[in-house]
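Question: does this match?
>
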Amino acid sequence: MNEVSTLGIWIDSNFKLQKLCDQLSGCKLLALDTEFIRTDTFYPKIALIQLSDGECCWLIDVLAIDDFSALKSLLESPNTTVIFHACAEDIEVLDHSLDIQPTNIFDTQIAAGITNVGYCMGYARLVEALFEIQLDKQETRSNWLVRPLSQRQLDYATLDVVYLHPLYNMLNQALEDQQRRDWFNEETQSLFALVENRKNSQDYYLRIRGAWRLSAQSLTVLDRLCQWRETVARMRDIPRSRIAKDTVLFEIARQLPKFKRQLFEIEDWHPRAIKRYAEAVLKEVETASQQALLPQPPQPLSKSKTAIMKTIRNSLTSIAQDKQIPREFLSNKKELEDILRSSGQGDCQWPARLTEGWRRLWVKPTIEAVLSEANLSCESQ
Protein backbone atom coordinates (compact mmCIF):
# COMPACT_ATOMS: atom_id res chain seq x y z
CA MET A 1 0.00 0.00 0.00
CA ASN A 2 1.41 3.40 -1.00
CA GLU A 3 2.11 5.95 1.70
CA VAL A 4 -0.40 8.80 1.67
CA SER A 5 -0.01 12.04 3.61
CA THR A 6 -2.41 12.12 6.53
CA LEU A 7 -2.04 15.89 6.83
CA GLY A 8 -5.07 17.50 5.23
CA ILE A 9 -4.37 20.77 3.41
CA TRP A 10 -7.05 23.34 4.26
CA ILE A 11 -8.82 25.00 1.30
CA ASP A 12 -10.93 27.97 2.43
CA SER A 13 -11.26 30.43 -0.46
CA ASN A 14 -12.43 30.56 -4.08
CA PHE A 15 -8.86 31.28 -5.16
CA LYS A 16 -7.39 28.27 -3.34
CA LEU A 17 -10.11 25.98 -4.70
CA GLN A 18 -9.55 27.19 -8.26
CA LYS A 19 -5.80 26.67 -7.88
CA LEU A 20 -6.34 23.15 -6.49
CA CYS A 21 -8.69 22.20 -9.33
CA ASP A 22 -6.19 23.49 -11.90
CA GLN A 23 -3.52 21.37 -10.19
CA LEU A 24 -5.71 18.25 -10.32
CA SER A 25 -7.17 18.80 -13.80
CA GLY A 26 -5.09 16.00 -15.33
CA CYS A 27 -5.65 13.55 -12.48
CA LYS A 28 -7.49 10.45 -13.67
CA LEU A 29 -8.33 9.10 -10.20
CA LEU A 30 -9.57 11.14 -7.23
CA ALA A 31 -10.92 9.96 -3.87
CA LEU A 32 -13.73 11.95 -2.28
CA ASP A 33 -15.84 12.02 0.86
CA THR A 34 -18.16 14.59 2.40
CA GLU A 35 -19.16 15.63 5.89
CA PHE A 36 -22.65 17.03 6.38
CA ILE A 37 -25.37 17.50 8.98
CA ARG A 38 -28.98 16.41 8.59
CA THR A 39 -30.33 16.20 12.12
CA ASP A 40 -32.54 19.31 12.15
CA THR A 41 -33.21 19.84 8.45
CA PHE A 42 -34.96 18.10 5.58
CA TYR A 43 -32.09 18.71 3.20
CA PRO A 44 -28.51 17.81 4.13
CA LYS A 45 -26.20 20.74 4.96
CA ILE A 46 -22.77 20.09 3.52
CA ALA A 47 -19.85 21.32 5.63
CA LEU A 48 -16.67 19.75 4.25
CA ILE A 49 -15.34 17.94 1.18
CA GLN A 50 -12.29 15.70 1.50
CA LEU A 51 -10.30 15.12 -1.68
CA SER A 52 -7.22 12.99 -2.35
CA ASP A 53 -5.11 12.16 -5.39
CA GLY A 54 -3.51 9.18 -3.66
CA GLU A 55 -0.55 11.18 -2.36
CA CYS A 56 -2.00 14.31 -0.77
CA CYS A 57 -5.29 15.16 0.92
CA TRP A 58 -7.21 18.42 0.80
CA LEU A 59 -10.03 19.55 3.09
CA ILE A 60 -12.37 21.94 1.27
CA ASP A 61 -14.21 24.27 3.66
CA VAL A 62 -17.55 24.53 1.89
CA LEU A 63 -18.74 27.22 4.31
CA ALA A 64 -15.98 29.62 3.21
CA ILE A 65 -16.43 29.19 -0.55
CA ASP A 66 -19.21 30.33 -2.88
CA ASP A 67 -17.85 29.41 -6.32
CA PHE A 68 -17.69 25.68 -6.98
CA SER A 69 -17.66 25.82 -10.78
CA ALA A 70 -14.04 24.61 -10.99
CA LEU A 71 -14.77 21.69 -8.66
CA LYS A 72 -17.88 20.84 -10.67
CA SER A 73 -15.84 20.68 -13.90
CA LEU A 74 -13.20 18.54 -12.21
CA LEU A 75 -15.56 15.99 -10.67
CA GLU A 76 -17.89 15.77 -13.67
CA SER A 77 -15.07 15.28 -16.16
CA PRO A 78 -15.45 12.01 -18.11
CA ASN A 79 -11.67 11.63 -17.84
CA THR A 80 -11.76 11.49 -14.03
CA THR A 81 -12.91 8.54 -11.94
CA VAL A 82 -14.08 9.54 -8.47
CA ILE A 83 -13.62 6.94 -5.73
CA PHE A 84 -16.27 6.89 -2.99
CA HIS A 85 -17.32 4.50 -0.27
CA ALA A 86 -21.08 4.01 0.14
CA CYS A 87 -21.67 7.12 -1.90
CA ALA A 88 -25.47 7.39 -2.12
CA GLU A 89 -25.66 10.19 0.43
CA ASP A 90 -22.50 11.87 -0.88
CA ILE A 91 -23.98 12.02 -4.38
CA GLU A 92 -27.24 13.36 -2.98
CA VAL A 93 -25.61 16.13 -0.94
CA LEU A 94 -23.24 17.17 -3.75
CA ASP A 95 -26.18 17.41 -6.14
CA HIS A 96 -28.50 19.31 -3.83
CA SER A 97 -25.98 21.65 -2.21
CA LEU A 98 -23.48 22.34 -4.99
CA ASP A 99 -25.12 21.18 -8.24
CA ILE A 100 -22.30 18.67 -8.76
CA GLN A 101 -23.18 15.30 -10.33
CA PRO A 102 -20.17 13.00 -10.74
CA THR A 103 -21.15 10.04 -12.90
CA ASN A 104 -17.82 8.30 -13.50
CA ILE A 105 -17.51 6.75 -10.06
CA PHE A 106 -16.04 3.73 -8.28
CA ASP A 107 -17.83 2.80 -5.07
CA THR A 108 -15.59 0.60 -2.90
CA GLN A 109 -18.56 -0.70 -0.92
CA ILE A 110 -20.19 -2.05 -4.08
CA ALA A 111 -16.89 -3.48 -5.28
CA ALA A 112 -16.30 -5.22 -1.94
CA GLY A 113 -19.70 -6.88 -2.19
CA ILE A 114 -19.29 -7.97 -5.82
CA THR A 115 -15.86 -9.48 -5.09
CA ASN A 116 -17.20 -11.26 -1.98
CA VAL A 117 -15.09 -9.33 0.52
CA GLY A 118 -18.27 -8.47 2.39
CA TYR A 119 -21.77 -7.12 1.81
CA CYS A 120 -22.55 -3.51 2.78
CA MET A 121 -19.35 -3.11 4.79
CA GLY A 122 -18.62 0.26 6.36
CA TYR A 123 -15.41 2.09 5.44
CA ALA A 124 -13.62 1.42 8.74
CA ARG A 125 -14.58 -2.24 8.74
CA LEU A 126 -13.41 -2.68 5.14
CA VAL A 127 -10.08 -0.99 5.87
CA GLU A 128 -9.62 -3.28 8.87
CA ALA A 129 -10.59 -6.37 6.85
CA LEU A 130 -8.17 -5.68 3.99
CA PHE A 131 -5.33 -3.78 5.67
CA GLU A 132 -5.63 -4.77 9.34
CA ILE A 133 -5.77 -1.08 10.30
CA GLN A 134 -8.28 0.16 12.88
CA LEU A 135 -9.71 3.63 12.33
CA ASP A 136 -11.14 5.89 15.03
CA LYS A 137 -14.77 6.66 14.09
CA GLN A 138 -15.73 8.65 17.20
CA GLU A 139 -16.13 11.91 15.27
CA THR A 140 -18.76 10.50 12.90
CA ARG A 141 -21.65 12.33 14.59
CA SER A 142 -19.78 15.50 15.56
CA ASN A 143 -20.92 18.96 14.44
CA TRP A 144 -19.16 19.62 11.15
CA LEU A 145 -20.71 23.06 10.75
CA VAL A 146 -18.75 24.62 13.64
CA ARG A 147 -15.55 26.52 12.97
CA PRO A 148 -12.78 26.01 13.72
CA LEU A 149 -12.88 22.24 13.49
CA SER A 150 -11.01 20.36 16.18
CA GLN A 151 -7.79 18.51 15.39
CA ARG A 152 -9.60 15.22 15.96
CA GLN A 153 -12.21 16.21 13.38
CA LEU A 154 -9.51 17.19 10.89
CA ASP A 155 -7.67 13.90 11.43
CA TYR A 156 -10.88 11.90 11.10
CA ALA A 157 -11.90 13.71 7.90
CA THR A 158 -8.49 13.14 6.32
CA LEU A 159 -8.44 9.43 7.17
CA ASP A 160 -11.81 9.04 5.45
CA VAL A 161 -10.10 9.42 2.06
CA VAL A 162 -6.55 8.22 2.82
CA TYR A 163 -7.36 4.56 2.17
CA LEU A 164 -9.71 4.96 -0.79
CA HIS A 165 -6.95 4.74 -3.40
CA PRO A 166 -5.44 1.56 -1.88
CA LEU A 167 -8.95 0.07 -1.65
CA TYR A 168 -9.55 0.97 -5.28
CA ASN A 169 -6.31 -0.68 -6.39
CA MET A 170 -7.08 -3.91 -4.56
CA LEU A 171 -10.78 -4.13 -5.43
CA ASN A 172 -10.38 -3.01 -9.03
CA GLN A 173 -7.86 -5.81 -9.57
CA ALA A 174 -10.21 -8.28 -7.86
CA LEU A 175 -13.01 -7.31 -10.27
CA GLU A 176 -10.69 -8.04 -13.19
CA ASP A 177 -9.43 -11.33 -11.72
CA GLN A 178 -12.98 -12.54 -11.03
CA GLN A 179 -14.29 -11.20 -14.36
CA ARG A 180 -17.04 -9.27 -12.61
CA ARG A 181 -16.53 -5.84 -14.14
CA ASP A 182 -19.93 -5.99 -15.87
CA TRP A 183 -21.57 -6.92 -12.58
CA PHE A 184 -19.98 -3.92 -10.91
CA ASN A 185 -21.05 -1.55 -13.69
CA GLU A 186 -24.61 -2.82 -13.45
CA GLU A 187 -24.73 -2.28 -9.69
CA THR A 188 -23.29 1.22 -10.09
CA GLN A 189 -26.08 2.18 -12.49
CA SER A 190 -28.61 0.77 -10.01
CA LEU A 191 -27.08 3.05 -7.39
CA PHE A 192 -27.78 6.15 -9.50
CA ALA A 193 -31.37 4.98 -9.96
CA LEU A 194 -31.70 4.53 -6.19
CA VAL A 195 -30.41 8.05 -5.50
CA GLU A 196 -32.78 9.52 -8.08
CA ASN A 197 -35.71 7.56 -6.63
CA ARG A 198 -35.09 9.11 -3.20
CA LYS A 199 -36.25 12.44 -4.59
CA ASN A 200 -39.63 10.92 -5.41
CA SER A 201 -42.05 11.13 -2.50
CA GLN A 202 -45.02 9.75 -4.43
CA ASP A 203 -46.65 6.74 -2.76
CA TYR A 204 -44.84 7.45 0.49
CA TYR A 205 -47.98 6.28 2.28
CA LEU A 206 -47.22 2.72 1.17
CA ARG A 207 -44.01 2.81 3.23
CA ILE A 208 -45.91 3.42 6.46
CA ARG A 209 -46.14 0.35 8.62
CA GLY A 210 -49.59 -1.24 8.67
CA ALA A 211 -51.02 0.85 5.82
CA TRP A 212 -52.61 -2.28 4.37
CA ARG A 213 -54.86 -2.50 7.45
CA LEU A 214 -56.61 0.79 6.68
CA SER A 215 -59.92 1.16 4.88
CA ALA A 216 -59.88 2.61 1.36
CA GLN A 217 -61.07 5.96 2.74
CA SER A 218 -58.41 6.06 5.44
CA LEU A 219 -55.76 5.04 2.94
CA THR A 220 -56.73 7.96 0.70
CA VAL A 221 -56.46 10.30 3.69
CA LEU A 222 -53.06 8.87 4.60
CA ASP A 223 -51.80 9.55 1.08
CA ARG A 224 -52.93 13.19 1.23
CA LEU A 225 -51.42 13.67 4.67
CA CYS A 226 -48.09 12.28 3.50
CA GLN A 227 -48.08 14.60 0.49
CA TRP A 228 -48.99 17.57 2.66
CA ARG A 229 -46.24 16.79 5.19
CA GLU A 230 -43.69 16.39 2.38
CA THR A 231 -44.55 19.82 0.99
CA VAL A 232 -44.26 21.48 4.40
CA ALA A 233 -41.02 19.67 5.27
CA ARG A 234 -39.36 20.73 2.02
CA MET A 235 -40.67 24.29 2.21
CA ARG A 236 -39.55 24.81 5.83
CA ASP A 237 -36.46 22.58 5.46
CA ILE A 238 -37.25 20.54 8.56
CA PRO A 239 -37.41 16.76 9.14
CA ARG A 240 -40.75 15.08 8.45
CA SER A 241 -40.94 13.92 12.07
CA ARG A 242 -40.87 17.55 13.28
CA ILE A 243 -44.24 18.01 11.63
CA ALA A 244 -45.74 14.63 12.49
CA LYS A 245 -44.32 11.13 12.76
CA ASP A 246 -45.54 8.34 10.50
CA THR A 247 -47.44 6.82 13.41
CA VAL A 248 -49.30 10.10 13.95
CA LEU A 249 -50.38 10.33 10.31
CA PHE A 250 -51.49 6.71 10.47
CA GLU A 251 -53.71 7.39 13.51
CA ILE A 252 -55.21 10.52 11.95
CA ALA A 253 -56.04 8.54 8.83
CA ARG A 254 -57.51 5.72 10.88
CA GLN A 255 -59.66 7.95 13.09
CA LEU A 256 -60.71 10.47 10.39
CA PRO A 257 -61.13 13.38 12.85
CA LYS A 258 -63.37 16.34 12.03
CA PHE A 259 -62.59 18.63 14.95
CA LYS A 260 -59.39 20.10 16.38
CA ARG A 261 -60.06 18.72 19.87
CA GLN A 262 -59.87 15.19 18.47
CA LEU A 263 -56.30 15.78 17.34
CA PHE A 264 -55.15 16.35 20.93
CA GLU A 265 -56.12 12.73 21.63
CA ILE A 266 -53.56 11.49 19.06
CA GLU A 267 -50.70 9.86 20.94
CA ASP A 268 -47.16 11.18 20.41
CA TRP A 269 -48.11 14.41 18.65
CA HIS A 270 -46.81 17.48 20.45
CA PRO A 271 -49.51 20.06 21.36
CA ARG A 272 -47.40 22.82 19.77
CA ALA A 273 -47.39 20.95 16.47
CA ILE A 274 -51.13 20.32 16.73
CA LYS A 275 -51.82 24.03 17.22
CA ARG A 276 -49.66 24.87 14.24
CA TYR A 277 -50.92 22.26 11.79
CA ALA A 278 -54.43 21.32 13.00
CA GLU A 279 -56.31 23.44 10.49
CA ALA A 280 -54.25 22.18 7.55
CA VAL A 281 -54.57 18.54 8.65
CA LEU A 282 -58.35 18.73 9.04
CA LYS A 283 -58.58 20.33 5.62
CA GLU A 284 -56.58 17.46 4.09
CA VAL A 285 -58.88 14.91 5.76
CA GLU A 286 -61.95 16.68 4.41
CA THR A 287 -60.50 17.08 0.89
CA ALA A 288 -59.58 13.39 0.77
CA SER A 289 -63.21 12.46 1.43
CA GLN A 290 -64.10 13.98 -1.94
CA GLN A 291 -61.41 12.09 -3.88
CA ALA A 292 -61.57 8.79 -5.67
CA LEU A 293 -60.55 6.01 -3.30
CA LEU A 294 -57.13 4.44 -3.63
CA PRO A 295 -56.78 0.68 -4.20
CA GLN A 296 -55.83 -1.43 -1.22
CA PRO A 297 -52.11 -2.19 -0.92
CA PRO A 298 -51.02 -5.84 -0.85
CA GLN A 299 -51.37 -7.68 2.43
CA PRO A 300 -48.50 -9.58 4.05
CA LEU A 301 -47.74 -12.95 2.54
CA SER A 302 -49.77 -15.93 3.69
CA LYS A 303 -48.08 -18.55 5.85
CA SER A 304 -47.77 -20.92 2.90
CA LYS A 305 -46.06 -18.33 0.70
CA THR A 306 -43.84 -17.21 3.57
CA ALA A 307 -42.65 -20.80 3.82
CA ILE A 308 -41.97 -20.82 0.08
CA MET A 309 -39.96 -17.60 0.41
CA LYS A 310 -37.84 -19.27 3.08
CA THR A 311 -37.15 -22.12 0.66
CA ILE A 312 -36.20 -19.62 -2.06
CA ARG A 313 -33.80 -17.88 0.29
CA ASN A 314 -32.17 -21.18 1.22
CA SER A 315 -31.75 -22.01 -2.46
CA LEU A 316 -30.27 -18.58 -3.16
CA THR A 317 -27.87 -19.05 -0.25
CA SER A 318 -26.57 -22.20 -1.95
CA ILE A 319 -26.13 -20.30 -5.21
CA ALA A 320 -24.31 -17.49 -3.39
CA GLN A 321 -21.93 -19.92 -1.76
CA ASP A 322 -21.26 -21.65 -5.05
CA LYS A 323 -20.64 -18.40 -6.93
CA GLN A 324 -18.81 -16.79 -3.98
CA ILE A 325 -20.95 -13.69 -3.70
CA PRO A 326 -22.97 -12.38 -0.73
CA ARG A 327 -26.54 -13.72 -0.87
CA GLU A 328 -27.92 -10.23 -0.21
CA PHE A 329 -26.69 -9.21 -3.67
CA LEU A 330 -28.86 -11.78 -5.41
CA SER A 331 -32.34 -10.62 -4.42
CA ASN A 332 -34.04 -8.58 -1.72
CA LYS A 333 -37.12 -9.23 0.37
CA LYS A 334 -39.44 -6.89 -1.54
CA GLU A 335 -38.55 -8.49 -4.87
CA LEU A 336 -39.33 -11.96 -3.54
CA GLU A 337 -42.60 -10.77 -2.00
CA ASP A 338 -43.74 -9.20 -5.29
CA ILE A 339 -42.91 -12.39 -7.18
CA LEU A 340 -44.73 -14.60 -4.69
CA ARG A 341 -47.83 -12.39 -4.57
CA SER A 342 -48.21 -12.58 -8.34
CA SER A 343 -47.27 -16.24 -8.65
CA GLY A 344 -50.07 -18.57 -9.68
CA GLN A 345 -51.94 -15.70 -11.34
CA GLY A 346 -50.63 -16.10 -14.86
CA ASP A 347 -48.05 -13.32 -15.08
CA CYS A 348 -45.35 -12.76 -12.46
CA GLN A 349 -43.98 -9.42 -11.31
CA TRP A 350 -40.34 -10.07 -12.17
CA PRO A 351 -38.01 -7.15 -11.33
CA ALA A 352 -36.02 -6.04 -14.37
CA ARG A 353 -32.69 -6.73 -12.72
CA LEU A 354 -33.62 -10.43 -12.39
CA THR A 355 -34.57 -10.78 -16.06
CA GLU A 356 -32.01 -8.54 -17.80
CA GLY A 357 -28.83 -8.36 -15.75
CA TRP A 358 -26.23 -10.87 -14.56
CA ARG A 359 -28.72 -12.31 -12.03
CA ARG A 360 -30.89 -13.78 -14.78
CA LEU A 361 -28.43 -16.65 -15.23
CA TRP A 362 -28.89 -18.05 -11.69
CA VAL A 363 -31.42 -16.14 -9.60
CA LYS A 364 -34.46 -16.33 -11.89
CA PRO A 365 -34.06 -20.07 -12.71
CA THR A 366 -33.55 -20.83 -9.01
CA ILE A 367 -36.74 -19.02 -8.02
CA GLU A 368 -38.69 -20.60 -10.88
CA ALA A 369 -37.59 -24.07 -9.79
CA VAL A 370 -38.86 -23.51 -6.24
CA LEU A 371 -42.17 -22.09 -7.51
CA SER A 372 -42.61 -25.00 -9.90
CA GLU A 373 -42.07 -27.48 -7.08
CA ALA A 374 -44.72 -25.63 -5.09
CA ASN A 375 -47.10 -25.83 -8.10
CA LEU A 376 -47.03 -22.06 -8.61
CA SER A 377 -46.65 -20.89 -12.22
CA CYS A 378 -44.71 -17.70 -12.71
CA GLU A 379 -44.26 -16.65 -16.32
CA SER A 380 -42.54 -13.38 -17.12
CA GLN A 381 -44.70 -10.46 -18.15
